[in-house]
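A reminder before we start the practical. When you read a complex entry, don't treat the lines as separate problems. The point of joint prediction is that each chain is placed relative to the others, so the output describes one connected object in space. Small molecules and nucleic acid strands, if listed, are placed in the same frame. In the example below there are two entries. Take a minute to note the order of the lines before looking further.
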Amino acid sequence: MKQINIVSMISADLALRHAADSFFSKLELLPDDNLVVSFSGVRSISRSFAHEYTLRKKKSTKKITESDVPLNVKKMFQLIINVRGRKESLLDLDSMPVITVN
Amino acid sequence: MDYPQLLMEYLNFCKYRARHSTVGSEIPNFKLLTPTMALPLQDYFVNRISHRPELETSLDPHVITIPIDETKSRTYDDFKRTNNPENYGGENVLSYVIGELSDNIYQHSKFSYGLTLGRETLERGYCELAIFDDGITIAGSLEGSGMSFDESTEPIVRAINGLSSKDSDERGQGLGSIFRLLIRGLSSELFIASGSGAIFVDPMMRIRFSIIGRNRLGGTLISTRIPYPCPKIDIYDYL
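Here is the predicted structure of the whole assembly.
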């Protein structure tokens, strides 16, 4: 089982969807079928990165597991699962006055 | 009514741009400008009128250019070199805000010039952070996916409420999560100008602005003022 450290391949701050995408494209090229992605050293993760990681993992031909996942990263992956597709109407368009500035 | 300060800073940029384009004027001292004024003004000088990339480093070295090539993006690391994350709500808040907003630029804007800047004006009781791109605007991105709107502020409001140009129910969470984090979590002010529309929100006030004619922005500017000292929060309570 091959172990890959995500910090050394991307960054300690996992932010961009593109980074998750290209990370998985690299994993797909490895000869091993079973991969362990170590999150050791990860400082932060964006919702976008976590979402893209989850999507790509689901589509991957490899069996991928995670290790050394910091609590904040675990929470973000959990958030992706818990709030999937749920959106909140934060602003009511009609109750906001419009002022023309010209 | 008095306009919110973040809108006034944006309008200062518009006034300067109008004056410069008609009678010409000297380049101001960028180090004295707020991020909300400095970023669109830098775009105006470097990207739109002069095409003088050498100006970029001389205007204000604290302004961070967001590289077009995503693989070269280290925006959060660059931001931290000149700003203390603790003054922006801590590492988790700041990395989340910069990560999501810069990813939005890559995902939606088709930009050619992107900038971000933070100023820690602790003596005034806030830190201001802005991020700018010269791309197709929020309206342009959504309209490119076949959506249409009655007026210019509607796309901004609907993007905050979860509308996305990407064809998936799971997309469109980024701006809304930034809104919850900044407004509910940190009691910040948020100003977004994009094309001919703008909005201002703080914990007390929600206003839309139609910014037409000389006040239109070719791109998107997102600015926030985070109160200092700001409360320590767990971002997961707000995402």
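Discuss with your neighbour: The longest strand of chain B covers residues 217-227. What might explain this?
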